[in-house]
Amino acid sequence: MANVPEDLHYSKDHEWVRVDGEEAIIGITDYAQNSLGDVVYVELPKAGDKFSTGESFGSVESVKAVSEVFTPVSGAIARINESLADEPEKVNSDPYGEGWMIRVQMSNPGEVDSLLTAAEYEDFTKAESE
Amino acid sequence: MVDFGGWDMPVQYPAGTIEEHLRTRTHAGLFDVSHMGEIDVRGPDAISFVNRLTSNDVTKLVDGQAHYTALTTPSGTVIDDLLVYRLAGDHLLLVVNAGTTDKDWDWISSHHKGESVKLLNASVEYCQLALQGPDAESILQKLTDLPLSEIKYYHFRPGTVDGVSGIVSRTGYTGEDGFEIYAPADRAEQLWNKILDAGDSGSPTGVVPCGLAARNTLRLEAGMALYGHEIDETTTLLEANLGWICKLDKGDFNGREALARQKQEGIKRKLVGFEVTERGIARDDQDVLVDDHIVGKVTSGSPAPFLKKNIGFAYVPVEFASVGQEIKIDVRGRPVGAQIVKTPFYKRAK
Q1: Measured between alpha carbons, how far is B177 from B82 in angstroms, rounded to an integer?
Q2: Residues B281 and B199 in one domain
Q3: Please, are residues A84 and A44 in contact by the beta-carbon 8 Å criterion?
Q4: Which of A57, A79, B170, B310 could form an S-S bond across to A103 if both were Cys, CB 3.0 to 4.6 Å?
Q5: Interface confidence: ipTM more than 0.90
Q6: Is A43 among the domain residues?
């Protein structure tokens, strides 16, 4: 059973959001990393790049496939997780911790409220895998 | 699970693609390749019939020997690549790709011109398990009385494995030593479980079940073609570096004239192996660039888990096909540097 921490917000594209003041920390969920398999490459944007909700900010590659990742909230990139360049496997081993991907300076923090709660996301993944 | 030529197949097992790949290189991996098609050719003209439709020389095979070959079109391109097993002078078994089994069957039966042969599409009757890796022989030996060490590469023997009658063949698609076992389809589960047990599956040095993704990365590292990628009905055998299975002097066969002509005139494009030299992973169907111009296409691109590099095959014009040639791969709009290298990318120590 995939791990879905209570205190995070979730998108239907399988990203999670942790709110830290005006910033949002974003990564992919345990469910997503598990379906992708061994992550071997992560491509991330540059600090300062601006994204609107639902836009692709990079890609995650397993041996077999490339998957795009999407920003669940709009804003500018404050920081990226540079350690993923050399250790992409952190996305598998610690998706909610060291496997985080980007930190976004939110332009509209209210957007977080329209994301899924942990319980809603769990139901969503159950329905998806049936 | 994914659909593969009409079969539901796992992309990976719980160990994951990288571990499956590495374990096959260092110990052993077990693959359920029952999706492969089997076409049985029997009769006094079996050898001459198959020799007319394929590019390698079937008359050179002895009983108990197999070879890699291709079903060719009149223009020297590829209907399918396959193994031909000589069971007897009047009995051959053709092992073909899953996705092309029906096409091959139609092609072969429609090219039958009065030769005395009986054709049978026996695909559903066989299961096929591939046990590959340096420990394959010692694992399989626990389950059979066949003297495995006496079976040479690309040779096979009929015999029993765990009491099940079948064929044990020293062949594979991974670049490792190993065996492919053909047996009645209803015994697949028994053999699968027994081989996993005999190979101490579950131990970190035991045999591991492998899915389609590892099958692909292993064959790619070993420099082997995959039908629908490196070869198809638009690529000739010579362009695909498969001149070694074109026996132009063996007598007439489908495509012989075209291949002889192409050999004389020279090919214009060629399949090459490349290594990505910058950050990024090349993928199937991406464009190959030289001086910002599209000159070719990637046929297979992937991380190579054992070599820890990103590699691939591509077709490029011969003027850009030399080892050391710098190229770029268009990775979703980003040109990523790569260099043409010798293949196979990986060769096991003998």
Answers
A1: 19
A2: no
A3: yes
A4: A79
A5: no
A6: yes
What's the total number of domains in chain A?
1
The parent domain of residue B2 ranges over 1-264
Does the beta-carbon distance from A40 to B217 stay under 8 Å?
Answer: no
Q: Which residues of B touch A59 (CB under 8 A)?
A: 332
CA B149 to chain centroid, in Å, comes to 23
Distance, C-alpha B89 to centroid of its chain: 25
SS3 assignment, position A89? coil
For residue B23, the surrounding DSSP H or E stretch is helix B17-26
Residue A5 lies in a domain: no
- Partners of residue A20 on adjacent β-strands: A23
Enclosing domain of residue A73: 20-110
pLDDT at A1: 65
Q: What is the mean pLDDT of residues B164-185?
A: 98
Q: For chain B, how many structural domains are there in total?
A: 2
Q: Do the domain assignments include residue A127?
A: no
Task: Give residues 289 to 328 of B whose Cβ lies within 8 Å of A.
Answer: 302-303, 305
Beta bridge partners of B231: B227
pLDDT of residue B6: 85
A82-122 pLDDT, tens digit per residue, is 999 999 999 999 999 999 999 999 999 999 999 999 999 99
- Is residue B56 scored above 80 in pLDDT? yes
Among B264, B290, B322, residue at a domain's last position = B264
Domain match, B146 and B294 both = no
Spatial distance between the Cα atoms of A123 and A117, rounded to a whole number of angstroms? 10
Are B307 and B259 found together in one domain? no
Which tokens sit at B114?
């009065």
* B107 & B207 share domain: yes
Q: Is the pLDDT of residue B350 over 80?
A: no
Examine the domain organization and report whether B3 and B38 are in the same domain. yes
Asked whether residue A122 is domain-assigned, the answer is no
- pLDDT value at position B4? 83
Look at B11 and A37 and tell me if their CB atoms are within 8 Å.
Answer: yes
Q: Which of B18, B279, B302 sits opposite A38 (nearest CB)?
A: B18
Q: How confident is the model at residue B1 (pLDDT cuts 50, 70, 90)?
A: confident
Q: What is the pLDDT of residue B189?
A: 97
> Considering only CA atoms, which of A109, A101, A108, A85 is closest in space to residue A16?
A101
CATH, residue A61: 2.40.50.100
Residues of A in contact with B305 (CB under 8 A): 63
B347 within some domain: no
Compute the mean pLDDT over every residue in chain B, rounded to the nearest whole number: 97
Neighbouring residues of B248: CB distance < 8 A, sequence distance ≥ 6: B256, B259, B260, B263
pTM score, whole prediction: 0.94
Cα–Cα distance measured from residue B98 to residue B226, given in angstroms and rounded to the nearest whole number: 12
List pLDDT tens digits, range B136-155: 999 999 999 999 999 999 99
